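Still learning. Any example?
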Amino acid sequence: MDELDEPGGLPALGDLSDLDHRLLSALRARGASPGVARATRALSGAGEHGALWIAAGAVGAAVDGPRRTAWLRATALTAGAHLASMGLKRIVRRPRPAHVEPLVRTAGRHSFPSSHAASAAAAAVAYGALGAYAVPPLAAAMCLSRLVAGVHYPSDVAAGAALGALTARLGARWTKGGRRD
């Protein structure tokens, strides 16, 4: 018997996969509401290729002259997290969920990690550190929308968010021009 299957041990990988499927099914069901479906589609479109977050960074750089370089670097980290997730998708090649009907079309057929979640979490960390306090809740909504849309498993979104947050956190000192806060 594998230690993951022992009573009191960690859950078996099959149990985690089943939980992933069940959570996705429950969240995808929320998309049956027309208002939720509309919001989900809008977030999905806005987040495609990190567009919302890159645009937000560009606006930050344009309106906050004294911290323009920090905004541009934060934007670069956000784009970098998105690119890293796309590269990881090509390595892992996990298929998108097939047991739910998606609300939106996707740019690719691979699911792990969520690139929408990676760029959203990177923006939440990087732009949040620059005082853009509205970004983290919007980023959380973006991550949740990927589940409601039925295009990612919860583990895809969690991995994407972790990748994005880690990317932004590792680049935090560079964003601020090498200064310690």
In short: Residues 3-175 form a domain with the Vanadium-containing Chloroperoxidase; domain 2 fold (CATH 1.10.606.20). The helical segments are 13-29, 34-47, 51-63, 68-92, 115-128, 135-148, 154-170, 172-175.
